[in-house]
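S1.2 Input.
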Amino acid sequence: MAVQQNQTNKGLNIGTLKRVHHIALNVKNMTVSRHFYGEILGLHELTGDEVPSTLKNLVSQGKVANFVTPDGLVLDLFWEPDLLPPNADPKQQFTRANHLAFHIDANLFDEALEVLKNNKITIDHGPVIRPTGRGIYFYDPDGFMIEIRCDPIH
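S1.3 Output.
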């Protein structure tokens, strides 16, 4: 596939940016958030030599934790103990980001639902069924909306 060239030279050419490398979230309670992303959602936490050298000091001080998804996206958690709580009404968004979506195999979607229920995770809505698949929307410990979604079963 040919990369479309930017004729105006006012921006990057389409295809220059390859993928999202990482997403960084501020968290109020690092212990609770590490449990949520590592134990409940099952993301691999980077430890030892896996931690980028630029973050080793912050990780060793407990100020940052790094997780990675199976496709290589890194989720950085930054400890902000003075982080203001979200609005008491979870429908009132407190950030410009809407949600973070994780893809799951359609055969494992119901299992993910059970894990959320068993861990008493606050569900915003769903599961929803769309032509693009199924999704469930819920909140992390700091009130940030997370989605687990799967493609439709054919």
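S1.4 Remarks. Strands lie at 22-27, 44-45, 64-68, 74-79, 100-103, 123-130, 133-139, 145-150.
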